[in-house]
Design goal:
This protein is mostly helical and 200 residues long. The protein folds into two domains: 105 residues, Winged helix-like DNA-binding domain superfamily/Winged helix DNA-binding domain (Arc Repressor Mutant, subunit A, Orthogonal Bundle); 86 residues, no CATH class. Helices cover 61% and strands 6% of the residues. The chain has a two-stranded antiparallel ribbon with strand order 1-2.
């Protein structure tokens, strides 16, 4: 049923993934890549890895996410003969559809709009987010200290005072609004410092 809804254009998979990201046990980057795969497949009925490489995630993290999605059987690549008898690589999304059906049947929904926050931030910055940006946002979102409205308000305020907005300036603005203590951009919040140190 879910598969038919997807092919008919009636399944809002982006919203479903963002609302159930914890239930699906996906990272922000994995969820982002999975949605891009579904976007491409919906448009062309196949996956162009080269185009997927232009989605804003660097090659190392893209390869890692693809490996995670394949290993956990969300997607599966296999060879299939085309009408000329030539072998070509195609993708199966059955694993993802099976997980969707399981979640719906068991009514295990998550009130989590993490992916929507990423979209809001990406639109606010007017450029694709890097993998490091996504990891920083994941760290902040997982702390459950800020809601989607907080990100929207912080971006709106920054647009009035800055020509260029970065993830760093956004996180500092969020911290300023939360604590009421105004910090300069050079004073990186402690929660950002701690996370960045883990990436080194």
């Amino acid at each position: 049923m879910i598969k038919k809804l997807f092919y008919g254009g009636y399944f809002d998979y982006s919203k479903f993934i963002s609302n159930n990201i914890n239930t699906l046990s996906l990272t922000i980057v994995d969820a982002f890549v999975l949605i891009k795969i579904l976007d491409f497949y919906k448009e062309t009925n196949h996956i162009d890895i080269k185009k997927l490489g232009l989605c804003g995630v660097d090659k190392k993290n893209l390869d890692k996410s693809l490996a995670n999605l394949i290993d956990r059987k969300f997607i599966n690549f296999y060879l299939e003969n085309d009408e000329n008898g030539l072998a070509c690589e195609t993708v199966s999304l059955d694993g993802f559809f099976e997980r969707v059906a399981y979640i719906i049947n068991n009514e295990t929904y998550e009130d989590n709009d993490a992916y929507m926050i990423v979209n809001i931030v990406q639109e606010g910055l007017n450029k694709p987010l890097t993998a490091k940006d996504l990891e920083l946002l994941t760290s902040v979102i997982n702390e459950n200290r800020f809601k989607r409205e907080d990100f929207e308000n912080a971006l709106e305020k920054l647009k009035q005072t800055r020509r260029v907005i970065t993830v760093k300036s956004l996180l500092i603005e969020l911290e300023n609004e939360k604590t009421g203590i105004i910090k300069e951009e050079k004073e990186t919040p402690s929660f950002v410092k701690d996370f960045v140190s883990q990436l080194k």
